[in-house]
Each structure stands twice: as C-alpha cells, then as structure tokens.
Amino acid sequence: MAKNKPKSKTHSGAKKRFRLTGSGKIMRRRANKNHLLEHKSSKRTRRLSRDVEMANADARNMKKLL
C-alpha cells in the first residue's frame, strides 16, 4: 500500500472569517465595522460592509488554511 500524506485540516478561525469564490479568490471583510459606528458616516459604513478580495501576498498563505 502506498503511504499517503495526511490531509491538512481546515483552520477553524479562517473558515469563519474568509470565503473562497468560484474562481479561487479569497474574500475578506473590511475592518472598522464592529463598533463605534455612531460617528461614522452612513456612506462609510456602507462601503465597509462590502467584502473585498484579499491581497495576493496574504491569499497565498490563507489558501493553505482553507
């Protein structure tokens, strides 16, 4: 029998925070949307609500965790 490498487990914290798109990009939430929202403008909070693509340098490491 061939010796297989063990499967790597998904990082529990990463799976809660990031998602993989169909094309393989990693999407993340923007910072500054958790608290102290009263003084931030509606325009700003709407912009912060959208997910953005993760930077390539970070995405390479993140793909190993997902």
Gyration radius (Cα, Å) is: 17 Å
Q: How much is the average pLDDT?
A: 93
| Overall helicity | 25-40%
Can you tell me the residue ranges where pLDDT is under 50 for at least 5 consecutive residues? none
Number of domains: 1
CATH fold naming:
Factor Xa Inhibitor
Which class of secondary structure composition applies to the elements?
Answer: alpha+beta
Strand content: 5-15%
Global geometry: elongated
User: Number of helical runs?
Assistant: 3
Amino-to-carboxy terminus distance = 29 Å
Number of DSSP-assigned strands: 3
Question: Order of strands across the widest beta sheet?
Answer: 1-2-3
Order of helices and strands: HEEHEH
* CATH architecture identity: Irregular
Family: Belongs to the bacterial ribosomal protein bL35 family.
GO molecular function, one term: structural constituent of ribosome
Keywords: Ribonucleoprotein, Ribosomal protein
InterPro entries: Ribosomal_bL35 (IPR001706), Ribosomal_bL35-like (IPR021137), Ribosomal_bL35_CS (IPR018265), Ribosomal_bL35_sf (IPR037229)
Describe this structure in words.
This is Large ribosomal subunit protein bL35. Residues 1-19 have a biased composition (Basic residues). The protein has 66 residues and is an alpha+beta fold. It has one domain (12-65): Irregular (Factor Xa Inhibitor). The chain has three helices and three strands. The chain has helices spanning 12-17, 42-49, 56-65, and strands at residues 19-20, 26-28, 52-53. A three-stranded antiparallel sheet has the order 1-2-3. The radius of gyration is 17 Å and the shape is elongated. The mean pLDDT is 93.
